[in-house]
Amino acid sequence: MTSFFGDNKKDAPSFNWKELQNTEQLEEIIHLSNNKPVLIFKHSTRCGISRAVLKAFEKQFKDIDAHFYYLDLLKHRDISNTIAERFDVIHQSPQLLVIRNGKLITHDSHYNILNVEV
Question: Which CATH fold would you assign to the domain 9-115?
Fold first, then answer.
C-alpha cells in the first residue's frame, strides 16, 4: 500500500498526521495555532535522513499536545515554497516548523528537528 510515508507499511505513522495538500490549508493552520501549537513536518520520501528523522520525531514527540501536519515534498514542492515565503524560512528537507498564535515560533532541519522546543 502506498502512502505519503512511502511504499512500505513499516513506514506508516504512529500518530495522527494530517496531510498538507493545498495552500488553503495554511489558513486552517494559522487558525488552529491559536488553541495549541501546529507542527508542520516537511519530508522527502526518497531521503534516508528525512525518513530517519521522521521515525525519531514520532517517538520523541508522541505525547505533545499539538496539531501535526505532514508535507510530502515530492508531491507538493509548491506548498513548501508558499510556506517558505509566508513564514520567511529557507526551504530545507526534512524541516519542522512550529506555528503558535499564527506565527512561526521556531523551525529547524535535519537532525536538529529533534532538539526543537514546542
Answer: Glutaredoxin (3.40.30)
